[in-house]
Design brief:
427 residues, alpha/beta, 20 helices, 7% strand
Length: 427
């Protein structure tokens, strides 16, 4: 490989990959024209030793392999990633956990390399505070279940609490469809509660249907707690034949790599997440070739690069998607990217409940409220809930707890006032 002169200057600027070089040498070998000079020149062009090129040729002849032999990759199981997440990303804690579990354990340095490799490829490691909060929420839900407040027999709980209240008639409002939708996946409700098709829900359903017909993009926005996510889920609970719905969760502090991984995982594509963005995008684009609604909830978290990535998916010539961006402040996030904002076909706001809707919506939401007078419901809305469905749901849970845990309690204005103080934020 120590040639000099004009030939050395020419070859020194060439760099040829192994598959291309081996394929060309095999062609010469099949024609009976392969010489050691070809191998030496190929070694220089490939930047390797002559013996290495002969080994490449032997592997191609005997094994039909032109690439290097793949090495076994060290991969972490989902359980290991869960342990790592609970440890706040501390690899040493994961290493001790694997040693305690027994079996063959990689070195600490190898674990560091694998974690760093997968994080750079788009794997998202949850923040320790988020993991702790999720764990506390699971413990709280389990505690409520143990108290029979979140039992599968939700109707029995509601009926038991309702029997302890004085009965009164509720006033219905024309145009509000009460309690007709039943349970919808992804919407958490207090025990015994039912979804209600308000005027906002019907408006969201109409906008979603028009966006699906045009395979366009839409934005659902409004202040927190008004029922945006529930309205979209109700609108998409029964889609036409041939359509699929995919909800993409937005990771904490999202990056392009993180949102790319979130889309890949939400589509439930086979195999592991590709370790190059080109392959990941090709796999995602291939899966989006069929009619599909992509819902990005909490889209207000997305920075401009992530929004540009979503726009590239929607603009891709081979995809057939309807893009629904949902969240409080999403309209302001889209204002930072006029290219995507100009593609939004519908800007659908979810306002707070109108005063004329409160009685019918709340009494349809939960049977406990049917025993409360319309005057008290209006008073609660004016002093505490202010037309916010999430606050009404929290207040419903507090009322259930009070009725089930306190003997001879009456849902009068004194009790309702104390419960309203619990759901009002501190000033």
């Amino acid at each position: 490989m120590g040639e000099s002169g004009a030939w050395g200057e020419v070859v020194s600027g060439l760099r040829v990959s192994r598959p291309v070089l081996v394929a060309r040498l095999l062609e010469l070998d099949a024609a009976g024209a392969l010489t050691s000079a070809h191998v030496r020149a190929g070694a220089q062009a490939g930047g390797v030793n002559v013996r290495t090129v002969w080994r490449w040729l032997e592997a191609a002849r005997t094994e039909g392999r032109m690439e290097r032999r793949p090495r076994a990759r060290l991969e972490l199981s989902e359980q290991a990633w869960e342990v790592l997440g609970q440890a706040g990303g501390n690899v040493s804690v994961l290493h001790r956990h694997l040693k305690d579990a027994g079996g063959q354990v990689p070195s600490l340095a190898s674990l560091y390399r694998v974690v760093r490799r997968d994080l750079e490829a788009g794997r998202v490691l949850p923040d320790r505070a988020v993991v702790r909060r999720d764990r506390e929420e699971r413990q709280t839900r389990q505690a409520l279940a143990d108290l029979a407040l979140a039992s599968p027999r939700q109707g029995d709980v509601a009926q038991e609490a309702a029997l302890r209240l004085p009965h009164s008639k509720s006033t219905a409002v024309p145009g509000v469809l009460v309690g007709e939708s039943g349970a919808v996946a992804g919407v958490a409700l207090p025990a015994g509660a039912h979804l209600v098709r308000t005027s906002s829900v019907r408006a969201v359903a109409e906008s979603v249907g028009q966006a699906m017909a045009a395979e366009g993009a839409m934005c659902v926005f409004g202040d927190p707690g008004r029922g945006k996510t529930a309205a979209v889920r109700m609108a998409l609970s029964e889609v036409p034949a041939g359509w699929k719905v995919t909800w993409v969760p937005v990771p904490v502090r999202p990056s392009v790599a993180g949102i790319r991984r979130a889309v890949f995982d939400a589509l439930a594509l086979p195999g592991r997440f590709p370790h190059t963005s080109v392959r990941a995008d090709a796999a995602v684009a291939g899966a989006l070739g069929e009619a599909r609604v992509i819902v990005i909830d909490e889209a207000q978290r997305l920075p401009v690069p992530c929004l540009e990535y979503l726009q590239s998916l929607w603009d891709h010539p081979s995809t057939r998607i309807t893009l629904v961006l949902c969240g409080a402040g999403t309209e302001r996030a889209l204002a930072r990217l006029p290219q995507l904002a100009s593609r939004i076909g519908a800007w659908q706001e979810v306002p707070r409940l109108a005063v004329t809707e409160v009685t019918a919506v709340v009494t349809g939401f939960h049977p406990l409220w049917r025993t409360v007078s319309a005057e008290d419901l209006t008073w609660i809305d004016q002093t505490s809930t202010h037309g916010t469905l999430r606050t009404w749901a929290a207040l419903t849970t507090h009322l259930q707890n009070a009725l089930l845990t306190t003997a001879d309690v009456v849902a009068d204005r004194a009790l309702l006032g104390r419960l309203c103080q619990r759901v009002a934020p501190p000033l």
